[in-house]
Amino acid sequence: MKTASAFFVWIVAAMAVHAVGVSEFETMLEKGNAYDCVSLAKLFYFGSETEQDFTKAVKLFYKAATEGNPEGQYWLAKMYSDGSGVKQRSDKAYVWAFAASRQGYPDAQNLLGVFYSNGLGVATNLVQAVACFTRAAEQGNAKAQFNLGSSYEYGTGVEKNLEKALKWYRKSAEQGCVPAQAALGACYQHGIGVPVNFNISAGWYAKAAEQGNVPAQLVLGMLFELGKGVDLDDVAAAGWYRRAAEAGNAEGQVRLGVCYELGKGVPQNMTSALHWYRQSA
Predict the structure, then answer these.
(1) Residues 22-28: contacts with CB within 8 Å, 24+ apart?
(2) CA 168 – CA 18 distance, rounded (Å)
(3) Is residue 120 scored above 60 in pLDDT?
(4) pLDDT of res. 49
(5) Please, are residues 280 and 247 in contact by the beta-carbon 8 Å criterion?
(6) What one-character DSSP code corresponds to residue 264?
(7) How close are the terminal C-alpha atoms of the chain, in Å?
(8) How many C-beta atoms surround the C-beta of residue 103 within 10 A?
(9) Are residues 41 and 72 in contact, defined by beta-carbon separation less than 8 angstroms?
């Protein structure tokens, strides 16, 4: 007789050829253990190797969550928060995030901190938010490390401390968290908790910009235009302005328009300049 785990392995292998059938899904929903239900639910959630189906994902996450699985509880909280596959309910999102957080699940602790920060499903409590971020950050959660760094930078829920902000931004950025990389670039650009260093700043902005962070793309373009931390390069500046502009950033659109008007890094072209000026307006 096949165990639930063995059955799940068979499903994953089969999905390389075809989507999960109704019978396989129902069998997992009825007999699968919590761990395997979460694994299959994430395939449905992300549309990985099978057609994306939030309704099936939420059913599997719910089964795992009610059996006490913290990862299932976390994902169910996210789905109630986003309204994916289920009616959006911030109160239920909070309940499930709280349940997973009590079991020490760091993603849930970070999510719970976000709920406390924004008053989603619970009264706003910035001090409690920082406590949640801290618990998750100390377990190495990159998103929580970024949120904790931001809390220390702006003094939300905790006494402002730029050195601690820098510390947590760095931990998060080194794990590849894109907003943290941009924030660390800003710290070195403006001397937030550290002496100004345009070379290091440009390096962190570049990491974030290459992964699609629009504010970082804009600033990196400015650094290339001014030759700060990088060699002066009008072509590179215009290229980064273009990426920010095409993402809808108004300042990037204006700066790209100026590039076309003056012929900096691109051929002079008033038609293109006017196009980007209009886009920004």
Answers:
(1) 25/56, 28/4, 28/60
(2) 44
(3) yes
(4) 78
(5) no
(6) S
(7) 67
(8) 14
(9) yes
Residue indicated by tokens 């929903």: 29
Asked if residue 113 lies in contact with residue 132, where contact means CB atoms within 8 angstroms, the answer is yes
Contacts of residues 254-262 at CB distance under 8 Å and 24 or more positions apart, as own/partner, are 254/280, 255/218, 255/221, 255/222, 255/225, 259/234
Helices 214-226, 178-190: crossing angle, 10 deg rounding: 40
Q: Sign of the CA dihedral 138, 141, 142, 147?
A: negative
Residue at 186: amino acid letter = A
DSSP 3-state assignment of 37?
Answer: helix
What does the angle CA 10 – CA 12 – CA 15 come to, to the nearest 5 degrees? 110
CA 222 to chain centre: 25
Q: Which amino acid is at 31?
A: K
CA-closest candidate to residue 96, choices 124, 65, 67: 65
Could you give the count of Cα atoms lying within 13 Å of 130 in the half-sphere of its Cβ? 17
Tens digit of pLDDT for each residue in 205-234? 999 999 999 999 999 999 999 999 999 999
Query: Cα separation of 208 and 92, whole Å?
Result: 34
